[in-house]
């Protein structure tokens, strides 16, 4: 793959496909990690004298403008991070975009409105998607792919547009791919994988592929209860995917055959009700119980302290760690301890640690950990998982051609 160092961009219109899909509370950005992640690529293009046109999706609008998903707040924050004004186009391929792009001088930056306000961006129809890519291509001379969080999507701006323009990868994607190769091709051992999140079905592919690569797999979050149920334990009213139990049993058996250690919770923090994440009021019936003695009518919402300690011990000798998915409902203080235990073990350890995007990356920031203590914090949870599953990612394949 070409990188931006291989391009002559002075005086050229450079279309940067970023991933600026940041969490919003109204118009307030609650985590600007993805904006900061792409800023070095944009800054480098600015310094080289390019006219930089940044584009991204935000949320899941239904192919038409929706004010709650506007990128306008992102334009302001991007300008603050870059230290220069960022012009904002109120559409993607309409009159505003054309005027804003035409008004750019060398070294200036514009942000287009949400790509997904156009049905062609996410269309399953190749012709409709291609027509939208043609409109985007008319705005630019060069394409730079740097939205790692979207490279697993066959979308117009990710998959079709690179074929229409000279193209290269930005600094962020180059870094992400290098990191993922360290998790798949150049692994230093012991290699420990920590998986959490709500649904076991979301992680089956990556477990399947890693059973031949990892030395140890630690399971937390809501997905742990399907594993505990598969082992014959009652899980109360915890999140459970009963239809996945046969697959889980097969994986546990394969792990045993391959010498891969599976580590499940030994105690769990439970409650009869889901906590209020707005008020964060203390949960009255919060208690910690053994993982094999969960009471009926109560749901597991976090690892217990014994499991937090166990997981830290299982991470202590690791040379490589991949972590994807929180260990509990970390947004509430009563159920954040399991996620904190894993984050602290990685921050304090010597392993090359990769935090696999999404909620895990948000948890590290929200819980106040220093990002520099981790080897790499990914910007793309879904993309990282699909890469580790061994899948071809459409956006990367387009940039390799």
Please give a structural write-up:
The chain is α/β, with parallel strands linked by helices and 401 residues long. It contains 15 helices and 17 strands. The strands form 4 sheets. A 6-stranded parallel β-sheet has the order 5-6-4-1-7-8, with helices on both faces. A 6-stranded parallel β-sheet has the order 11-10-9-15-16-17, sandwiched between helices. Helix 1 packs across helix 2 and helix 9 crosses helix 10. The longest helix has 15 residues. It is elongated, with a radius of gyration of 22 Å. The mean pLDDT is 95.
Task: Itemize the secondary structure elements and their pairings.
Layout: E1 13-17, E2 24-25, E3 28-29, H1 33-47, E4 51-55, H2 72-82, E5 86-88, H3 95-102, E6 109-111, H4 119-122, H5 126-137, E7 142-145, H6 156-160, E8 167-169, H7 171-184, E9 191-195, H8 204-210, E10 216-219, H9 224-230, H10 245-258, E11 261-263, E12 267-271, E13 287-290, E14 299-303, H11 305-315, E15 320-324, H12 337-348, E16 352-355, H13 358-366, E17 376-377, H14 381-388, H15 394-400
Parallel strand pairs: 1-4, 1-7, 4-6, 5-6, 7-8, 9-10, 9-15, 10-11, 15-16, 16-17
Antiparallel strand pairs: 2-3, 12-13, 12-14
Helix pairs in contact: 1-2, 9-10, 11-12
